[in-house]
Write a structure and sequence with these properties.
Elements lengths: L9 H14 L12 H8 L3 H13 L3 E4 L3 E4 L4 E3 L7 H7 L4 E12 L2 H7 L6 E11 L2 E11 L8 H7 L1 H9 L5 E10 L2 H7 L6 E11 L2 E11 L3 E3 L3 E2 L4 H12 L2
Parallel strand pairs: 3-10
Antiparallel strand pairs: 1-2, 4-5, 5-6, 6-9, 7-8, 7-11, 8-9
Helix pairs in contact: 1-3, 2-3, 6-7
Amino acid sequence: MLDDTLPVTLQYQLRGKLLDKIEKRFWSPGSQIPSERELCDEYGVSRITVREVLKELVQEGYLVRKQGKGTFVSLPKFEHELTSSYSLSQELEKEGLDSGFQLLGFKRCSATSLLQRVFGISAQDSVYEITRLRFIGDELFAWERAFVPCSLMEGAGEEQLKKDGLYLTIFRRSGLMAEEAEVEAEAVNCPGEIAELLQIKKNTAVLRLNRLTTAKNRCIEYCESYIRSEKYKYKYKQTLRKKAFYDDAYSDQTEGK
């Protein structure tokens, strides 16, 4: 309950209480907070007071309203510093956040002249095109389209990609472990068809990344991503290190030798 004898308004007190729960992660990022009525009962204030405080916190980015669902704690803006790896999932796990992806497409196609130069392959060689939507919690985060030479992923299918992710699939199929990611980033207006998938308005400002990932001085992936700029800050190029998600696969591959 709030104290109406204090020299500050109930609205100010309630704001402080709710912010404290958000900042101390009593309500974790992405979680739903109690309803307006529940907050009224908990703090002994009117619904008007609760509604005004929630409105302020939504406007300031601490909370987000989802129509028909309720009010949720906003996910933090994810700052990918690449200090140790280019595993998005691992970086998010460090922040205590869940991540995942939805596979939109996985197909074999001819290599364009650009991809031939990037991968050092001929016009007769094929590449896999992998299109995915990325999520942080249940919020859409990014759309990406990656290309990988078919020779590095022969025998791989959608189920393995869904289970292992792209880099581990490449490693299991070719033995090549991602070592370095060189990225170009620029702010652009999101194309209409991608904006629709990301559930944002056409021409919304987003961050476009073009990434070249190499292993043993060979390019193993070319990827184009469109990332919701309010959710992400990209910093710099990084040499990758062998991480835990490779360890089991490496052991599996070498046990029989």
